[in-house]
Amino acid sequence: MATEIVNTTRNLPATMTGEVERAGYAILRGLDRLGFTHVNQDGAVFSVRFDKVHLYGANWAAFHLDAERLWHFSVADLAKPSVLAQLAAVTRKPVRSFDDGGLSFVVELQAKPKVRLPDRVALDLGQRPDGALMVPVGVGRAGPEWRSLPELGHALIVGTTGSGKSTWIHSALAALVTGAGPDRLRLALIDPKRSEFTAWAGVPHLMADIAHTEQQATALLSDLVAEIDRRGDLLAGALCRDISAYNRNSADPLPYILCAIDECLDLVLGSGKELAGYLKTIAIRGRSAGVILWAATQHAAAITGMPRVVNTNLTARLVFRVADRSASDVAGCPGAEGIARDKPGRLLAKIDGKPQELQAYHLPDADLARVAGSVATPKPAGPTLTTTEADLVTWAIAGNGGYLGLGDMRARGLGNKASRRLAEQWELRGWLVKDPAAGNRRKVGGELLGWVSA
Fold first, then answer.
1. pLDDT given for residue 57 in this prediction
2. What distance lies between CA 368 and its chain's CA centroid?
3. Domain ranges of the chain
4. Among 10, 42, 134, 183, which is 20 to 30 Å from 388 by CA?
5. Cα distance from N-terminal residue to C-terminal residue, the chain
6. pLDDT at 66
7. Would you state the pLDDT for residue 97?
């Protein structure tokens, strides 16, 4: 049974509120824009108005046009499909015409019920969708949201302490390393805090040891740029525009490389032009060569401190709770400042254009350690050395009193960069120690000394 509401003095009755009122005003506004307004010679304005509205439960409303206002207009013109389409665009709801002794516009009012996001979602790798290198982005109102690493591409990951940013990164790495071997995925991890990526130190996917210092980060990024150059030559030689085309036609496909940098902004602001230059190259040329950059930071408002071209090419934006509106605007996801503190893991993800609200997957520390341990390479009994490195150590012990400095390495055939990088890595491991009695010359020590003695 329809409920009739008669309009006597206003465009819409005062009793019509909420969705019905908004739909009615939208129709009138749309008809006015479409030109259904008449001005008499005396200046009187005649426009379409309603004289009654029939409500059919909570689902439908029929807005009946006032016949006294229609003699200036053609009913057939008002009921044209093009007019109905324009009204549907204005009301953002389906609109139909209905002959009930005049003309009514029927609007479907009932919207789909809003689905609440869960407050926590455990990462279940058994529910991973089909596809290569799938990344768990989160759960939205339409369900789980996973994207492939190449589809996600370069990403900026922003969030204050405790917002869920780090857990998102660990969930993504857990899904990637358990879904693909080192022949399909390599990792280059940079961790200035020295504690964020510790769990992944033993996975075979690592290109090199996790970089902690500015010098180590610069060396690792330098290697990535060299790899991009090498791959560029391969792609050009194979007449391929990108890695996906190359891998489809190659008997020896190239693995994707994910470079994840924690607290990227702090690293960039504290470094020199060399590191920033490598980041620019990776941001501009890396994606087509299969080198993907993820930059994580707490300080969204200071993102402009990064090189502009890097910021521009971090097209995917995963923004957790940030401090204020200016920070969310700069990060590209206005509204992230309104994410509640008691909802860790809630984020705005801007991947296809418009940000959507998601709940990130949760990976407890115990599960993180278990997943990382399940793919970690067992630690060898002693140091693993290349033939060149073993020859250097043997020569140092047998012919140089145990000393092995940069000059010694260069004299034995290593280049300047390679010598410096090797010395830094071995010092961090305790394999080279400085001898104060000999002017702080580097000397073989630790596991290396025991390896030679054995």
1. 63
2. 20
3. 3-108, 121-375, 387-453
4. 183
5. 95
6. 78
7. 82
217: left (phi over 0), alpha (psi -120 to 50) or beta: alpha
Q: How far apart are CA 332 and CA 350, in angstroms?
A: 8
Distance separating alpha carbons of residues 202 and 376, to the nearest angstrom: 5
In whole angstroms, what is the distance from residue 167 CA to residue 172 CA?
9
- For strand 256-261 and strand 143-148, is the pairing parallel, antiparallel, or unpaired? unpaired
Instruction: Tell me the DSSP string of 222-289.
Output: HHHHHHHHHHHHHHHHTT-SSHHHHHHH-SSPPPEEEEEETTHHHHHHTS-HHHHHHHHHHHHHTGGG
Helix ranges, 180-213 (H): none
Residue 317's Cα: distance from chain center in Å? 4
Cα separation, 134 vs 435, in Å, equals: 49
pTM greater than the 0.70 cutoff:
no
Q: Which of 58, 64, 2, 56 is nearest to 27 (CA)?
A: 64
* DSSP reduced 3-state for 191: coil
Query: Cα–chain-centroid distance for residue 316?
Result: 4
**Does domain 387-453 correspond to CATH entry 3.30.70?**
no
**Do 17 and 40 meet the contact criterion of CB atoms below 8 Å apart?**
no
Residues 373/366, Cβ–Cβ less than 8 Å: no
208 close to 400: Cβ distance less than 8 angstroms: no
The Cα–Cα gap between 257 and 243 comes to 11
Of the candidates 9, 280, 325, 321, the residue with the CA atom closest to the CA atom of residue 165: 321
Residue 88's alpha-carbon distances to 22, 77, 107, 416, in angstroms, are 13, 16, 9, 69
Taking the chain (454 residues) in runs of 10, the rounded mean pLDDT of each run is 38 54 81 77 75 74 77 76 82 79 76 78 94 96 94 95 95 98 97 91 94 91 96 96 95 96 81 88 97 90 74 94 87 91 95 92 94 85 79 88 90 88 84 84 81 58
Name the DSSP class of 290. T
pLDDT at residue 452, as a whole number: 60
**Pick among 3.40.50.280, 1.10.10.10, 3.40.50.300, 3.40.50.1240: CATH of 121-375:** 3.40.50.300
